[in-house]
User: What shape does this take?
Amino acid sequence: MLRRARARHRRRRSLLPLAIGLGIVVVLGGLIGAYKLYTVYIRHAEAVQAADAITTRRQRHIAEQAGFSPVAMLGDSITAQGNWPELVGSGVANVGQSGDTTVGIAERAAMLPPTVRTVFLMGGINDLRTGASNEETAQNLENIVADLQPRRVYLESTLLTSDSDLNQRVDDLNVRLHDFCESGTCTFVDLNSVLAPTGTLLPEMTVDGTHLKPAAYTLWAQRIAPLLAAERAAARH
Assistant: This one.
């Protein structure tokens, strides 16, 4: 009996270092796991903070662009390159952004300050050029119009280009946008009848088949001038 008891005691003593070692491994594993979770949390928090900072800067930029203007021209580079205060008078802010698709336009539309009560919106050509479908592009523009409510929204036609194949898609897109505005959510403004009456953007209107010359902006301004005059008259009453 005494011999067996001593044998058990020796076995226990031999197992003790193993148990201690296993305990240390478990503890270290837990600490390493906790540290990894902590670093993931810190990185996530830093990413969120950085994204919030970018959003805040963009909101500030949009607010600075809009100023206290009651009217905003919203769109991509075609809108951005117009000198709208000179073309149509004061109180009209240019919040166009070169290279924007409807996704970028939507983000900036959500950042417009409440002082903007009327929006002239154009977009879609960059979407079509980068492979977006007509349906997706139209839906994005319709969503932007919905998000801009209760402002008055003038949805300007996506401009035709010098590319006849692309123009077929532009025409189809504009048919849908026109029909969408028939619901009363927005007012469709056909600019192609002025800038591209033959079904393609006239050479004297464009610098590269897409972007516009000063003469085109003058015609554009003349097309929307009565609409702006009506908005200004309504604001005075």
The chain is about 60% helix and 10% strand. The chain has two domains: 16-66, 69-236. The longest strand covers residues 152-156.
